[in-house]
Design brief:
Elements lengths: L5 E3 L2 E3 L3 E3 L8 H9 L4 E8 H16 L21 H15 L4 E6 L8 H8 L4 E5 L11 H18 L4 E5 L6 H11 L3 E4 L6 E4 L4 E4 L10 H10 L6 E4 L6 H10 L3 E4 L1 H6 L3 H15 L5 H4 L17 H7 L10
Parallel strand pairs: 3-4, 3-12, 4-5, 5-6, 6-7, 7-8, 8-11, 11-12
Antiparallel strand pairs: 1-2, 9-10
Helix pairs in contact: 5-6, 7-8, 8-10
């Protein structure tokens, strides 16, 4: 029987397939189905910096309510202690998930700037999260900010979160860095225990009827696999960080490719939203069949075997691949 376990962030997961942050993982009614389907871990939906800052502002207003009234009018004073904020609800979700799940529960924290709100990383750990996934999602539009400025801000944020927690810290980033391998090393030095590659860039659309810019969320496809595949293959063996792949993992074949490139875990969201948690069973069956056919004894055996450091021609992960890819297209005969 093929051993399906993998090591990620210091945990031994029963499966390399991880249910990443989505409405499914935020729904307690889905947790048992996700675990029974074979997920190695679950990442809860992100707690956003905007939620924390918005609630802090609302609480400040509540505390100030009635300050210009007569002291005797105690009913003017709000019961601030009874106010449940979005962060409070998120902490409760973490507590409940930890109680109900036997697989590791990873809490996601989304932010871009260091600040007092990083203390919520500690609150998430105190609520029972076994690891934190720091989700760095930011679209930098200020022409006064240089690439160096942005990277320094991110590094400072990782350092600030690392200082608040003792549990493992993974950092989820986008691919849009000029020298990503250098930045990955900087994240490791700042205290990251894992890298999650990659965040998708959510781009707006224009509604031609209303002439408004509107958000459009499109679920990923397997075609988006190539970007994390490329960089995981490059980074495997060059960093002590665990490597998790996300975006584009829809089939067992997709997951196998990412593991062969060097991923320690394969996260999937869109496939589960389309097909339900039980799709993990299908993916695992596909992976096991492929591995057994080729006499792989374990996931650990195949991990990284086709990374940049283990292929005869490492240039396939570098610029030579650009030329080869462009010349790999072959025209097909037109239909008659």
């Amino acid at each position: 029987m093929t051993t399906f376990t993998t090591k990620y962030l210091g945990f031994t997961l029963s499966s390399p397939l991880v249910a990443s942050a989505s409405p499914l993982t935020g729904n307690p009614e889905m947790w048992e189905r996700i675990e029974l389907a074979g997920a190695g871990a679950v990442v809860l939906p992100s707690l956003f910096e905007e939620q924390i800052e918005g609630d802090a502002f609302a609480l400040d207003l509540a505390r100030d309510q009635g300050t210009e009234s007569f002291g005797e009018a105690l009913t003017y004073l709000p019961d601030v202690g009874s106010v449940e904020t979005d962060p409070d609800r998120h902490l409760t979700l973490v507590e409940e998930a930890r109680e109900r799940l036997s697989i590791p529960v990873i809490a996601s924290l989304n932010g871009t700037t260091p600040g007092g709100w990083v203390r919520y990383a500690r609150h998430l750990a105190d609520a029972g999260a076994q690891a934190i996934e720091l989700n760095l999602y930011d679209v930098v539009t200020d022409p006064r900010q240089s690439a160096g400025d942005v990277e320094r801000r991110y590094i400072e944020l990782v350092e600030a979160v690392r200082a608040e927690i003792t549990i493992p810290l993974a950092v989820k980033v986008g691919p849009w860095f000029t020298a990503f391998a250098h930045f990955a090393a900087a994240l490791q030095n700042a205290g990251a225990d894992g890298l999650v590659l990659f965040n998708r860039l959510y781009q707006p659309d224009i509604d031609l009827d209303t002439l408004e810019v509107t958000p459009r969320l499109e679920l990923s496809t397997s075609a988006e696999l190539r970007l994390p595949l490329h960089w995981i293959g490059v980074l495997s063996g060059t960093t002590t960080c665990s490597l998790a792949a996300t975006t584009g993992a829809h089939t067992g074949d997709d997951a196998l490719k990412l593991l062969l490139a060097g991923a320690d875990a394969v996260m999937t969201t869109s496939a589960l939203l389309r097909r339900g948690p039980e799709h993990l069973i299908v993916m695992e069956a596909e992976m096991r069949a492929w591995m057994e056919e080729r006499d792989y004894d374990s996931v650990e055996q195949l991990k990284g075997s086709i990374s940049r450091r283990n292929v005869p021609d490492p240039e396939v992960y570098e610029r030579a691949n650009y030329y080869q890819a462009l010349h790999s297209w072959k025209p097909t005969s037109p239909a008659r």
